[in-house]
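ok trying this again, last paste got cut off
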Amino acid sequence: ENGVADPFDESTLDAALVAAACGGHVSSLELLLAQEPPPQASAIKESFLRACGAGQCDTARRLLDAGAPLEARDRSRWTGLILGALCGANDLCEMLLERGAEINAADSNKWTAIIWASDRQQVSTVAFFIERGAIIQGAMHWARDPAIIEMLTARGGYKGDQTKLGIEDGVVFLLADKNRGRHVDERQ
């Protein structure tokens, strides 16, 4: 009315929410989530994915509490878990798995979180996913770090692995596994 823009119009609020999420600013995020009208679901989802990509566990947790979908995906079909694996954010990955994230969720190229962690040479993150039973097939092909190669080899991984994998609803599974689903334990 007086020619001054509302500082919290929808686009400004969305941008501020993303910035707070990426920067790990939980208190700022709380203030933004309390705005009236509240941020739209699409902004909460985008902020969640951005927080995961920045390895920000606390802001990602808060955005999940605010309604972000746990298995939200970006345009590349990356989940929060894949984004956390890319940057080696084990605390974030642990929180997402505790909340029920699918450990073997695959992106549009059928890459899972452990494959991305292997490709990005995130040694502790590869170990994290191995300990939690992630399907390792495919990770060895992209492994360059000697410690990752050693871990995957110890679990039966090898270059040129021809294990047949399936994908259903964006989740990778071993075709030989009749009980496909969450957290397949390959040690059996």
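PB: full thing came through this time. The first strand starts at residue 165 and ends at 168.
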